[in-house]
Amino acid sequence: MSEIYSDERKDKNKSSIFADFLKKKCANSTAHALSHAFSDEMIGIRIFWGFLFLAGISITICVIYLTISSYYKYDFSIKLSIQEKYFDDFPAVSFCNLNAFDKSDPLIIEYFNAILSRNNFSEKIKPTKESPAIYQVQQQIKLLYANLLDDLVKFRTSLNMEYSFEDLVISCYYNGQICGSQDFESFYNYDYSKCFTFNKKQNETTKVKKTSRTGPGSGLMLELFIGLAGIEDTFIEKRGIYLAVHNNSVNPVVNHEGMKLSVGNLAEIGIKRTFYQKLPEPYNKCRKDTSSYSDDDSEYYKRTVRSGVYSKKKCFEFCLQVEFIYPECNCNDPQITSLEWNQTFCKSNLELHCVDRVRNMFDSGDLSKLCSDNCPTSCDTLEYATEVSYSDYPSEYYYSIIKDQPNVIEKFENISNITFDKFKKSTLMVNVFYQDITSTFVQESPLINVEDLFSSIGGFLGLFLGCSVLTLFEPVVFLILVVAKLIENKKFKK
């Protein structure tokens, strides 16, 4: 019985030590409401301060919860800034002839007719209400280009059908200085065959052209010949050029960017440059570094990076080919550039219809989610906005002079005499220039970062409870003192 009484007394001693220390610490706390609740002599005042302390705790918990919730929403703000420069890089400019092949040689027409014949097509199209002219011509073009590409890859033809730089360009000027084929790099595209890029950055040692000039008349100016109207436009439904203004380090994604310009016009294209800098995950589903890949990345992403500079549009094309077109059609869409040369192209009418059907399903959104998950968006992008104005080209006065230019005479040698109308239907002029040399930066930044989160929490603790950072250490000090006092009492009793 005496042992039980002894144990109860020990427990009371421990409880009283704990209670005494707690009361003293609360009375001396730097949390003002708490110290007043334990130190003021009047019971009413102590109750009042106690109520304020509990209300402050409730409000603080609520506000901190809302702040933390806002942080994990990963909201961001957008900062727009404009940086003026007086001397900067001129962009890359790519152009292709919409008339992809030089058909001035009768052997080329024979070759195309042979392709049509073995696929049960005829050069002479008879449009109907159910099958209008535009549909039949476009199907004919697809069939010709697919079979031609297959023959070229497998070395079944040696015909030279491409327009060279000298064939297309009447004159070239950059900031008033003559430019030529040495200033252009060529690349190939399924729809337009051989294309040309001005001011392309091939590697890190390549020096791109810069400019300090703005406005019409500056920048790149081209006069172009696109083939004789009525003679070299067989198997096409439109005449003009494809043109894109883009980053110096990449080729344009032809089917997804750029513009088409018609003959008989001067197109003045003013450009402005905008840099977009997005936040990576968890703020956006985008990738900061798209110049390299890891083992965990999708095969389509890896293939796109290996093909040059990463582009989500190009990655989508690879994904579309592997996941949908080949399994459904048992052949590859010739429009999609591949790093593999031993592939089987879709080249029959039936196979090309299959490709069109799969593409329509993909574009409607039924199939695109898989590719979207495997092809990340780049966080950092550069875009060129263009503003185009047109004027009539050439004037009759200018035509009376240029028709005697030697390289113009060469281009029209297949007809007995050049006329103003024939020249106008076979040529155009382009001027690409900076409207002003400023760069717009659209930059995202976290609405609440870690520093802001902790600052807000500290501010609310100070505002509603009168606490500081040091107050947070008071419970730790309290426990240390209680443990030390208990140890001291134990030693004293011994």
Query: What's the CATH C level of the domain at 2-73 and 447-493?
Result: Mainly Alpha
CATH superfamily of the domain at 2-73 and 447-493: YojJ-like
Oligomer: single chain
Total strands: 16
Helix content: 40-55%
Instruction: Enumerate how many helices there are, as a single number.
Output: 15
Q: How far is the N terminus from the C terminus? A: 22 Å
Largest sheet geometry? 7 strands, mixed
Provide the CATH architecture of the domain at 2-73 and 447-493: Orthogonal Bundle
On the 0 to 100 scale, the average pLDDT is: 84
Overall body shape: elongated
From the 3D structure, determine the CATH topology of the domain at 2-73 and 447-493: Helix Hairpins
Segments where pLDDT lies below 50 for 5+ residues? none
Radius of gyration: 37 Å
The fraction of residues assigned to DSSP E strands is 15-25%
Which structural class is indicated by helix and strand composition? alpha+beta
